[in-house]
Amino acid sequence: MNKILPLPLAAALLCPVLPGLAAAPKPNIVIIYGDDIGFGDLQCYGGSRVRTPNVDRLAREGLRFVNGYATSATCTPSRFSILTGEYAFRRKGSGVLPGDAALLIEPGSMTLPAILRRAGYATAAIGKWHLGLGAKRGAQDWNGVIKPGPLEVGFNHCFIIPATPDRVPCVYVQDHRVFNLDPSDPIHVSYRHALPGEVTYKTMDHRELVMTSSAGHNNAVINGIGRIGYMTGGKAALWKDDEIEEVLAKQAVNFIESERNHPFFLYYASHDIHVPRVPNKRFVGRTGMGPRGDELAEFDWAVGQILKTLDRLKLTDNTLVILSSDNGPVLDDGYNDQANQLLGNHKPAGPLRAGKYSIFDGGTRVPFIVCWPGKVKPGVSQALVSQVDLAASFAALTGQRLGAGDCPDSQDVLPALLGQSPTGRQSLVEWDQGREKALRAGDWKFVLPGRTCDGLGPWKRVKIPAPGFLFNLADDPGEKTNLANTHPHKAAALAARLSEIDSQFPRHADPAAGLRGQRTESKAP
């Protein structure tokens, strides 16, 4: 794969961009990536129980897509795709990674941040990473230099949660080291067995817990919460769960302030609203929906911190902001936090079927908003767009040419993103990160035979019999009526096209060898 070019050489390779944009300064680019936020969770997408004024501002001042997709119904594959421009099903071992996984992205490959860095941007990843760190699983030196990581795949700076909030190690990593680590209190991590002297979820008095596990979170106990994996040491470096979003938002603000005089790319991957849901005390009780609703309000606050900073520094008019989510919504995801009991009439997936983990559209069709004042006309777009396309689209925006093999599944849909065209992709692939795939082409959707999850947790398993499911989403957004038997030729044509896409490029080796067979989520569907 092509390597990252030095900035002086890269500058000489710049080519003109879209008419009307060539003479303008390069826009700053901010991606705000929510975690488990569903198509119906936000006010601007029909949510009625939680006020999200800052997200609504983006929707009001920008373009709101109703056919915007993540590539997968779980987090790691979607994050891989948005940064690499490649469908994650082509990468072996790209399921939901454990906290001690090796880096999934090939160091030096042409990624979204690498494209922008080549164009002269300062690049930063702040928030949830969950794409692995280090060259070999379980061999990270949490007390020393941790690499390769974000800095080896195109970012100049990072301040990240290594995996997920429900997995150890429960620390931040700044660039190549654990943040605020006391060398006299070294960190030890295991995903195989409890560590000497460790008090675990199974051995402690549950009356001392902040919340109890409904499934899966029964290893280490950090801050009174059971986690996946075992950990000792690093007491001074441990995050405080109710301060995570505040810490991350501050880091984002600091980065914007430090790069205010240069083009910058900020990948802000919020930890909200992933479990364990522990909102800051300022948000507790705000929504009447328990921790899940309160963290939605907290997510909106973090969005506001970024927008207010852009306003204060007079950067808003020259900053392109994209807001989306890594996959669809989930309620009970392994903790007893009353997400189901306090849901009321709220519909996290809106009119869509199912959510996280599912091949149905609730798993992958997500909020997708593009805001660039003066450049993107406000409104609603029906264009079909995927997060995998941001790499090629931003390459076009900044005058970059991708080499053969770079970002292979990414398409330049910049005219659709900027509202200059009502159409985007012709088709896209959805993946539930298990074995199931689906193809959306226009209003039609075909799902391969197999099994997938239904509901929002706790789940039920649904069998997809041969020849598969066929839906017309224009008439049936809830995917209730299977048309495969009444439109067999359409089903066969889409199945053939999906097979062609599936085999289009060779599978990549697994850089995180040994991941398969490990626990893949907080609660196995």
Instruction: Determine the number of helices (DSSP H or I, runs of at least 4 residues).
Output: 9
Uncertain parts: 1-23, 509-525
Category by helix and strand content: alpha/beta
Strand order of the largest sheet: 7-6-5-4-12-1-13-14-2-15
Per the CATH scheme, the topology name of the largest domain is Alkaline Phosphatase, subunit A
Give the radius of gyration: 22 Å
Helix amount: 10-25%
Alpha-carbon distance between the two ends: 36 Å
Strand content: 15-25%
The average pLDDT is 92
The CATH superfamily title of the largest domain: Alkaline Phosphatase, subunit A
Write the CATH architecture name of the largest domain. 3-Layer(aba) Sandwich
Number of domain units: 2
**What's the total number of strands?**
22
Shape: globular
What would you say this structure looks like, in words?
By secondary structure, this protein is of the alpha/beta class. The chain folds into two domains: 421 residues, 3-Layer(aba) Sandwich (Alkaline Phosphatase, subunit A), CATH 3.40.720; 75 residues, Arylsulfatase, C-terminal domain. The chain is 18% helix and 17% strand. The protein is built from nine helices and 22 strands. A ten-stranded mixed β-sheet has the order 7-6-5-4-12-1-13-14-2-15, with helices on both faces. Strands 17-18-19-22 form a four-stranded antiparallel β-sheet, with helices on one face. A hairpin with a 5-residue loop joins β17 and β18. It is globular and about 65 Å long. The two termini are 36 Å apart. 56% of the residues are buried.
